[in-house]
Amino acid sequence: LDWWPFKTQELQSLKHFQKINHFSRSYELTRKDRLSRNIKKIQELKGAKYFNILPKTFQLPDEYSQFAACHSRERGTWIVKPVASSQGRGIYLVNNPLKVQSSITKSVVVSRYIERPLLIDSFKFDIRLYVAVTSYDPLRIYLYKEGLTRFATVPYDHSLRDLRELHMHLTNYSINKESLDYVRCEDPDVEDYGNKWSMSAMLRHLKKRGVDTVSLMLNIEDVIIKSIISVAPAVAHASNVFQPNAQSCFELYGFDILVDEDLKPWLIEVNLSPSLGCDAPLDYKIKSNLICDLLTLVGVQLQDPYSRDEGLQELKARTFSTQRKLVSHSKPHHSKTHKSVLTEAKEEYIRRGNFVRIFPTESTWDLYGTFLSYKSTFNQVLHQELYGDSSQPSCTLGRDNPKGFSGMHRVMVYERKLTSKESPTGALPLSTLLSTDKPTTTVYRVLGDSQRSKAVTHSRVEVERKDKRVKVERKDKRVEVERKDKRVKVERKDKRVEVERK
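RE: above sequence
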C-alpha cells in the first residue's frame, strides 16, 4: 500500500497485489484551473443548467478580459486563489478587477464570491466531505457518512465592508486556528461545540431549524457525482493506459462544499490528499474510523511486517487465481469482463463499512446516464446487473423532488452520530462474508485507549526482539565468516605443504 505521490513508471510497475492511493491524472479534479476547465467543457457539451455546481470562475491572466467584462455586467465580490495551493495560502478578496491585475505574479483563478452563505449563529461555515473513488470505469463513488463542519471565527457581515478580514470570509482550519477567537473542543462526544463540528451534528442542528436536510444531502451528492463525471473520461483513459491492473488504484478526495442561504451547495475545491492529521479528539474519532473503513473498502490485506516476504509470496499464490492477469502497459484492460466487474462491485459493497455508495445507485442511470462519456459499456451493464431494468419509473422525479426519490432513506444515515468501532486487535477477518475460494479480506477497526497503549508496548517489545534477532544473525554471520576464513587458511596451508613435498 502506497499513500504518497507517484510517478507514471511506478504505477506501471505495480503488481496485482499492490495498491496506491492515487489515480493517474487526478489533478484534473484537484487543480482549481483544471477543475474549472473541465466543468466548463461539460457545460458546453451537456448544458450549463445541469452542471451549475461551481461558482463562475476565470483563469488569469489568460481570461482577464472576459473576467473584466463579466465584472462590468455583474458587479460584486470575487475571491482569488492560486491554482495549486492549499490551507488558504495566497487567497484574498477583491471587488475591482484592477486590484487583481496589479497583483498577478503567477496563474490564479478568480471565482464569484458567495455573498449570501448559510450561517449558523451568525458564522460562516463549509463542509469537508470524504469521497472514495475505487474505479473510474465503471464509475464507483463512495461518500463517507461523517465529515467535518468548519466555522469562521469572526461573525459574518453581509455588508462586506472589510474584505481583508480573512477570519470572517474563509473557513479554512489552517487560517482560523491561529485566531484568538478560535474555540477548541476537547470532548470527542460533544460534536456541536467550538469552531469544528461533525457534519452529522450540523445536519441535526439545521433539521431543528426546519431545514430539509434530506434534500440538502441529495443535492450535495449530486454536486460530488457531477464533478467526478466531468473528469472521469480523462482519468479512465489514463488508467487504462498506465494501470496494469484495474484494482491497483483508489483515491480518497476531500470535497469542500459551501451552502448558500437558498440551501444550494457549491463546490469550492477538491483536495488531492485531504489532511488526516488529528488536532482534536473529534478529528481522531472521525479520521481513524475513516482510514479503517477505507482500507477495508479497497481490500488491503493485513500483513505481518516480520514475515513480509513469506506473506507476500502466500498472498501472490492465493490471489493469482482470482485476480485478472497483467496486460501490456500500452493496451487497455482486455481481461476486464462484465462478470469480474460485477463481482468486484458486490464484494466491495459488502466491505463498505461507514461508506455510502452514491454511484451507482438505483437512480443514477436515469439521472446521469446521458452525461457519461465512456467507450466501454461497463457502467450500463453494472447498473442493469445490480438494479435490473434502468427504465424504472420510481426514479424519474430526480433530485429536485426528494419526496419521491428512492435515495431518501439512504441519505438519512448522514444525520446519525458516528460510533467508533473499536477492536482489541485492530483488524478482523471477513471470512464469514466472502466465499472461501477468495483471498482473506481484512476488516480494520480502531483500537480503544487501553488497546492502543498495549499495542505501543507490544510494538516496542517486538522491535527489541527484532533487534536481538538481528544482532544474533549478525553474530552468526561473523562466526560463519571467521570459520570460513579459518577453513580457507587451512586449505591454503595444506596446499603449500603439498607443494613443498612435491
